[in-house]
Each structure stands twice: as C-alpha cells, then as structure tokens.
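Q: Give me a backbone?
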Amino acid sequence: MGSLSWLTIIGTAAALCTTLSFVPQLLKVRRQGGRDLSWAMLTAKIVGLALWFGYGLLIGSTPILVANGATIGLVGSLIVMKYAAERRTTESAFGPVHRRLRIAIDMDEVIVDALGEHLRRYNEAFGTELTSADLRGRSLTRHVPPEHAAATLDMLDESFFDTLTPIDGAIDAIRALHVHHEIFIATAAMEVPVSFAAKYRWLRTHMPFIEPSHIVFCGDKAVIDADVLIDDSPRHFARFKGRALLYSAPHNAHDTRYERVNSWRDVLEALTPRPGQEDLQNAA
C-alpha cells in the first residue's frame, strides 16, 4: 500500500510538471507571439497527447486522462494563439502591421549623429570647413586626402562615442515603437573595438527602456532574426531576410535599391498600421 502511495505521488508530480511546463510558454506567446514555435513540434505534440488520452480511455486510467487532457488544453491554446498571430502576420511587415514585430535598429547615423561629431573633430584638427553636403555619395574617410586618412580614423576613440547626440526624434520614436514591438539595437561595433563600452554606456543612459539583452554588437547583421532592419549602410541588407529600411545619410545618397526613410517620422509612418495610424505617432 505504501509502495502504491509513492507510485501515485511520483506519477502525479510527473504529470503536474509535464502539464505545467507549458504555462510559461503560453504566457510568452501571449506577450510576444508564437514566431519561435515550430508547427511541426506543436502538431507532433498534440497528436501524441491525443494518443495518450486515447490510451488512458482504453485502460481506464484517470491520472493519464486528467494529465493529458489538461496538457491538450494548454497546447491547443498555444496552437490557437500562434495561428491567430500568424494570421495577422499575413499582411506582413511589408503592408499594414497588426502584430508585434521584431525590429533591429542601427546606432551610428540612425540613432546618433556620429557624422556630425566626426566632421567637427576633423574640421578642428585640419582647419577645414567640410559639411555633410560635401560628402554626398561617400563617407568622410573616403573623402579626405590620403595623408589625413589615418588621423581621421584615429578620431574614433572611446571619447568620441561618449559625446554623441541623438538624431532628432530618434529616442521618442524608438520608445513609442518599443511599446508595440520588440526592439533590438544592432550596431557594427567590430569596426571600432574601443566603441563597445562607450556605446553600451550611451544606450543605457539615453535609452534605459531597451533591455541589455536587446543590445547586439555584431559584424554581419544578417545574423539578426528580425522582421525589419533600419540601417544607414546598404551592405547590411545584402543577406538580411526581412524588410530593409535605409535611413538616409550623405554616404548612401545615391543608393536606390532599398526602401528609404529620411527621418524618424518616416520610420513611424512606414511601420504604423493604416487603421488608427495616428495612435503610434501620437505616442512619440
């Protein structure tokens, strides 16, 4: 009898763990959508549970029936929620948006005015009066005389990234997008290794609503599994599979391959659903 009691306790505990393990996933799907869940896995799971439920009926086992019945309810809810989210997604990031998007945003020349600071330092060092208009179609380092190239790159020290100012409207727009979507800051800091700590400090100071886990330092942004990438460098779109929004900057002025946004107001308009479009913009 004691042995049977322990078997019952162990079996019940196992059934509870198996069933309740789907509750955190259910809450996550409710908050973020079910894009990370595999249809094949869900299908196999629901079929397996149905077979176990049928087995429980055949042998008359109440624990098997209760445990698998409850789990079928939870997994069924996951399937319904994932289907509903993906049905809204059918309109996709390329049309009206009715779902939570995963949006990756570059930092330099998209969130912060790195070029303005670079020009200021260059003009101060060499007594010139270069403006962003002078750089149409090319970067500063490719515009300056060859003998100034090394010094121009050396200006990108750690103090450079600590002093950057936000582009007009960037922080408010990103905060508004953050309410409705999942935001990642994806910056190619590999090109200037000293920028890692300074960029992280800047983001935590000016945009504390972005979780540290959503700050990504990378070289090739194709590794970002996002619906949308907002970037000023066309090269990052070459292998990116989502929607590319090219943020206008002097060096990309001649590029016509990608959808262009000239301001953060343009970004909000591009990513806001047409019905009730004013809601998201007003939040900014």
